[in-house]
Amino acid sequence: MVFKETEFQLKDGRNALFRSPCDEDAEEMLRFIIKACGETEFLMKYPEEYADFTLEQEKSFLHEARSSPDALMIACLVDGRIAGNCQITFRTGMKERHRASVAIALLREFWNLGIGTEMFEEMIRIAEKREGVRQIELDFVEGNSRARNLYEKMGFRITGIKPDAIRMKDGTFVNEYMMMKLLMKEV
Q1: Cβ within 8 Å of residue 118, ≥6 positions away
Q2: CA neighbor of 117 nearest in space, from 153, 141, 82
Q3: Cα(56)–Cα(17) distance, rounded to whole angstroms?
Q4: Helix axes 26-39, 55-67, angle to 10 degrees
Q5: pTM over 0.85
Q6: How far does Cα 165 stand from its chain's mean position?
Q7: Average of per-residue pLDDT across 160-185
Q8: What percent of the chain stands above pLDDT 90?
Q9: How far is CA 113 from its chain centroid?
Q10: The dihedral of CA 1, 4, 179, 146: what is its sign?
Q11: 3-class SS at 185?
């Protein structure tokens, strides 16, 4: 799916732009995710896990996101740079098509400017427009209280725990929490 460009104002007064990333964004998107993964322990990959990921693979990934009827990726640009991205993916099987999953990543320098809230508001609106979708789900890593606070502010509640689901570089294990937001619509 392709997202129609939308502008909004950050808490610091700058303007931000939401849009679907395209082939021309592939190199910057790849740099973005590597940097974001290096700034926090709470994303699902370490930066070095992208070492063998090629520009062509990133272009293919972005193309698939734009052409899929069941997924939507949104990049957030601030001052012409990618500050963050989010994705919503709709399940399609008969038993699961009432569910959507979301994910988000944001560079540290853009934290606390309202981008995360805006991203979630957009993803919730998109899910509410999708016929049959009843709930939005996400996972977060134990200790990520910033993300948990955002998710709870947006109406998500913890629905389960995957004990020792994540192994950190130092060998310690942490839990992964599952969250869900029930949409307020008839399905």
Answers
A1: 8, 16, 18, 76
A2: 153
A3: 25
A4: 100
A5: yes
A6: 19
A7: 95
A8: 96
A9: 16
A10: positive
A11: coil
Place of tokens 């309202």: 114
Task: Report the chain's C-alpha Rg in angstroms.
Answer: 16
Q: How far is the CA of 100 from the CAs of 7, 24, 48, in angstroms?
A: 24, 28, 29
Q: For residue 165, how many other CB atoms are within 10 A of its CB?
A: 15
Question: Is 59:23 a contact under the CB 8 Å cutoff?
Answer: yes
- Domain spans of the chain, in order of start: 6-131
Token representation of residue 94: 């008969």
Contacts of 117 (CB under 8 A, 6+ apart): 150, 153, 154
Question: Tens of pLDDT along 106-152?
Answer: 999 999 999 999 999 999 999 999 999 999 999 999 999 999 999 99
Domain 6-131, CATH: 3.40.630.30
Q: What is the C-alpha to C-alpha distance for residues 135 and 100, in angstroms, rounded to an integer?
A: 6
167 touches 173 (CB < 8 A): yes
